[in-house]
Design a protein that fits this description.
Keywords: Cytoplasm, NADP, Oxidoreductase. It is found in: Cytoplasm. It holds the Pfam family adh_short. InterPro entries: Biopterin_syn/organic_redct, NAD(P)-bd_dom_sf, SDR_fam, Sepiapterin_red. This is Sepiapterin reductase. The protein is α/β, with parallel strands linked by helices and 254 residues long. It has a single domain, classed as NAD(P)-binding Rossmann-like Domain (Rossmann fold, 3-Layer(aba) Sandwich), CATH 3.40.50. It has eight helices and seven strands. The strands form two sheets. Strands 1, 2, 3, 4 and 5 form a five-stranded parallel sheet that branches. β2, α2 and β3 form a beta-alpha-beta unit. It is globular, with a radius of gyration of 18 Å. The two termini are 15 Å apart. Bound molecules: NADP nicotinamide-adenine-dinucleotide phosphate (NAP). NADP nicotinamide-adenine-dinucleotide phosphate binds next to α1 and α6.
Amino acid sequence: TQGLSLGKAACILTGASRGFGRSLALLLAPRLETGSVLIPVARSQGGLAELEAELRSSFPSLKVHSVQADLSTEDGLQLVLRAVQDKLPGAADLERLLVINNAGSLGDISKSFLDCPSPAEVNSYFAFNVTSALCHHILHPEGLPGAPWLVQDCRPFKSWTLYCTGKASRDMMFQVLALENPGVRVLSYAPGHLDTEMQQLARTKSADPEMREQFLRMKQSGQLLDCSVSAQKLVTLLLQDTFASGAHIDFYEL
Ligand SMILES: NC(=O)c1ccc[n+]([C@@H]2O[C@H](COP(=O)([O-])OP(=O)(O)OC[C@H]3O[C@@H](n4cnc5c(N)ncnc54)[C@H](OP(=O)(O)O)[C@@H]3O)[C@@H](O)[C@H]2O)c1
């Protein structure tokens, strides 16, 4: 993939302030041609500012417009929408729109299935982890070919009811998107076990002791992936562009 590029693109990347999203932003940037626009989204101003400074100094031809927004709220979604409308000038001039739904949360993993969370808790979890990804279709500027939507991991884990249900919903949602829109390239990417804050929560807060132990063992034996290793695989998939639209691809399968 050396020398391949994603063309002149607009890229909306949620959850870019840390973890996988941050690494992905730094690996996507050199593959975006001059005039491309990157819109990193997260809640933390500090994380976004740091990323923006790093991108500006390493890739001066890339336009970067961070949006500080809480995607669990409608106001947050509106902020992203407004930024897209304001910052994507001359959409016809862009070859591709990349929407990367990377932001996600574990929810309360300290309870097992039968310790039901309250309806308010469930709704709030889904507002962020499902609704916000579903509502990104409003971001499609007219006439722009769409490209992938991610990031998923779609397996059952004990005590992770909300997380697993949310990821399965997103997977199906994106399969429908792919079926309805042959012109949109859709990919669900499972990035593998990453050494991030989310993993730290997984090994300390999971209700199930076997899960805690398994994740702790992975950390201690150096089995957790560096985010940039997995992000590089994803960038390669995007550059090669040979996946079946709607596919679910796991880091460990590659
Ligand atoms: N880590 C793993 O082992 C693993 C495995 C499989 C799949 N994944 C998936 O990969 C993705 C990234 O995981 P990660 O490990 O990098 O997670 P992470 O370290 O917890 O980072 C999550 C990102 O999402 C943002 N975020 C959280 N709540 C938000 C909200 N309400 N509104 C807007 N942004 C919000 C966070 O930024 P702010 O806090 O600044 O808002 C942060 O940038 C997630 O979808 C996760 O489910 C991770």
